């Protein structure tokens, strides 16, 4: 296993991961750190679908594209990690293989409240009430199945979810829809932030391991990398 990306925004994947220009990656939760997505594309030239309805995340995506036009003189807005610029500066991503979807991930198409943090420094917002503050935006949300149909994708090779508590609803619906990405990378925010009194995280992990043929490759403080094993 190796960790791709900055210390803050990186994820563990197998050293011998089999991705190429035909591979499809869905990256839920962009925020202000695209180091993992950029490195995946730089190495494998895979197609990456970025999914995040946060205004600052979309702004960051546009800034990153600008950055690669002028690497020597660019300052990102927002809460940027100290090592970010130097880390991504060495990469050469193919932005023809990136697509940005300005929606939230959920279990169906809907319009929902997207709660902001009390500390405006932090970029993350959540669809889960009581996860953060009381102020919110109204946003469009959609399921993975619907997005795949819109993009004309038949499979997902790697799915990454850092979506601030919505991971349980999204994953359960995706599995109900019989969609099984080869690799699934999830930050289990409900449990990390002690917002899981009904043990939804435990139930989802048990479902993945006991019923859906996934196994855990790496558990990095509840940032878990799963691999699908065809039975």
Summing up helix and strand content along with how strands pair, one would put the structural category as alpha/beta
State the shape.
globular
Total strand segments: 12
Order of helices and strands: EEEHEHHEEEEHEHEHHEE
Largest sheet, if any? Answer: 7 strands, mixed
User: Could you tell me the radius of gyration in angstroms?
Assistant: 17 Å
Describe this structure in words.
This protein has 231 residues and is α/β, with parallel strands linked by helices. 27% of the residues lie in helices and 25% in strands. It is built from seven helices and twelve strands. The longest helix is centred in the first third of the chain and has 13 residues, at 55-67. It is globular. The chain starts with a strand and ends with a strand.
Topology:
Layout: E1 2-4, E2 11-13, E3 24-28, H1 35-44, E4 47-51, H2 55-67, H3 84-89, E5 98-101, E6 104-105, E7 110-115, E8 136-142, H4 144-151, E9 158-161, H5 167-176, E10 183-187, H6 189-192, H7 200-210, E11 214-220, E12 223-228
Parallel strand pairs: 3-4, 3-9, 4-5, 6-8, 9-10
Antiparallel strand pairs: 1-2, 7-8, 10-12, 11-12
What's the short version?
The chain is of the alpha/beta class and 231 residues long. 27% of the residues lie in helices and 25% in strands.
Features of the shown structure:
231 residues; alpha/beta; seven-stranded mixed sheet; three-stranded mixed sheet; 7 helices; 25% strand
């Amino acid at each position: 296993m190796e960790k791709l990306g900055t210390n803050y925004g990186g994820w563990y994947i197998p050293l011998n991961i089999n991705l190429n220009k035909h591979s499809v990656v869905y990256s839920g939760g962009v925020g202000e750190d695209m180091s993992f997505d950029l490195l995946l594309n730089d190495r494998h030239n895979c197609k990456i679908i970025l999914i995040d309805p946060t205004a600052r995340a979309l702004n960051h995506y546009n800034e990153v594209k600008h950055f690669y036009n002028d690497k020597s003189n660019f300052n990102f807005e927002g809460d940027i990690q100290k090592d970010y610029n130097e880390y991504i500066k060495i990469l050469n991503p193919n932005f023809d293989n990136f697509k940005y979807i300005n929606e939230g991930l959920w279990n169906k198409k809907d319009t929902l409240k997207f709660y902001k943090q009390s500390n405006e420094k932090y970029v993350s917002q959540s669809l889960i009430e009581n996860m953060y503050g009381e102020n919110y935006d109204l946003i469009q949300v959609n399921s993975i199945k619907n997005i795949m149909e819109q993009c004309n994708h038949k499979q997902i090779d790697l799915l990454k979810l850092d979506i601030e508590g919505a991971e349980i609803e999204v994953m359960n619906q995706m599995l109900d829809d019989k969609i099984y990405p080869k690799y699934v990378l999830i930050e289990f925010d409900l449990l990390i932030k002690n917002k899981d009194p009904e043990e939804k995280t435990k139930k989802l992990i048990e479902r993945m391991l006991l019923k859906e043929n996934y196994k855990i490759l790496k558990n990095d403080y509840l940032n878990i990398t799963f691999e699908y094993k065809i039975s």
